[in-house]
Amino acid sequence: MRLGTFVMGGLAGAALCMMIQRNRNMSAIADGVGQMLRQRMSDMKENVMQKGIDLKFSGGFLGSSSGKSNSHHAGSSNSAVSKSGTAGLDEVEHLASRDPHVKQEINEILSQNNQHSI
Predict the structure, then answer these.
(1) Cα-flanking dihedrals φ and ψ of residue 25, to 5°?
(2) Integer Cα distance of 31 and 66 in angstroms
(3) Reported pTM
């Protein structure tokens, strides 16, 4: 990268920061975006840590099932479900009971792995 390009980028960034600080609407928007990014990063960090714990202590099966249930539910109200592997399997069983085609697919997968059907 050329030094002139680097300096121009720094000046443009400084000008943008000053513009955001002086305009209340832009400042509020930037604050909202910052809070959203912090929350997303925190959720991703928690999700990665939970997957690592699940993979280490459950042999991988519970980690993959709770990870999939976590990706569909982005709120913190479902964190209790992702904390326990059995709660994750109970949720999968509940979802399967709502759709017979999904239940049939799950039973086929379980029979291929020599496990009992739901």
Answers:
(1) -65, -45
(2) 32
(3) 0.36
Identify whether the C-beta of residue 50 lies closer than 8 Å to the C-beta of residue 83: yes
- pLDDT tens-digit map of 81-91: 445 556 667 77
Report which of 60, 116, 66, 114 is spatially closest to residue 92, judged by C-alpha positions: 66
Assigned token pair, 26 = 């832009």
Q: Is the dihedral of CA 83, 85, 91, 96 positive or negative?
A: positive
Rounded CA separation 69/79 (Å): 10
pLDDT digits (tens, 9 = 90+) for 91-118: 777 777 888 887 888 888 888 877 666 6
Q: 78 CB contacts (<8 Å, ≥6 apart)?
A: 69, 70
- Nearest to 93, CA basis, from 82, 103, 101, 105: 103
Q: How far is Cα 94 from Cα 54, in angstroms, rounded to an integer?
A: 21
Residue 82 has a pLDDT of: 47
* Of 56, 96, 49, residue with least CA distance to 70: 49
Neighbours of 54 (CB within 10 A): 22
